[in-house]
Amino acid sequence: MDAGVHAWDIAVATGLDMPLDEEMADGIWAAAERLADHLRDAYGVFAPVREVPEGPSRAEALLAFLGRDPHWAAPAS
């Protein structure tokens, strides 16, 4: 879970395409559902769940569930 989501963090921060595809997001969901709330509440590991527009992709929904803005992009330099 952590490696897949951090790959997204690094990719978007450096202006690369999103590496978190739908298949990977599906594979990560089970772990996220079991662990994220506990890690968020007990250790502050994840930011609060973010709202996403209706009909997000599986990857967008996963990122939002883990407290990330799936539409975030690095500022232009």
Mean pLDDT over the full residue set = 92
Q: Which stretches are low in confidence, meaning pLDDT under 50 for 5 or more residues running?
A: none
Briefly note the structural class of the backbone: mainly alpha
| Content of β-strand | under 5%
Major sheet? none
Kindly, what is the distance between the CA atoms of the first and last residues, rounded to a whole number of angstroms? 30 Å
Number of helices: 3
Tell me the overall shape. globular
Whole-number tally of structural domains: 1
Q: What is the string of helix and strand elements? A: HHH
Fraction of helical residues: 40-55%
Rg over alpha carbons: 12 Å
- Quaternary state of this entry equals single chain
Total beta strands = 0
Task: List the defining traits of the structure above.
55% helix; 77 residues; mainly alpha; globular; 3 helices; TIGR03086 family protein
Task: Describe the protein in words.
There is one protein chain. With about 80 residues, this protein is mostly helical. It has one domain (about 1-65). Helix content is about 55%, strand content about 0%. The chain has 3 helices and no strands. Helix 2 packs parallel to helix 3. The longest helix is centred in the middle third of the chain and has 22 residues, at about 20-45. It is globular. About 20% of the residues are buried. The model has no long low-confidence stretch (mean pLDDT about 90).
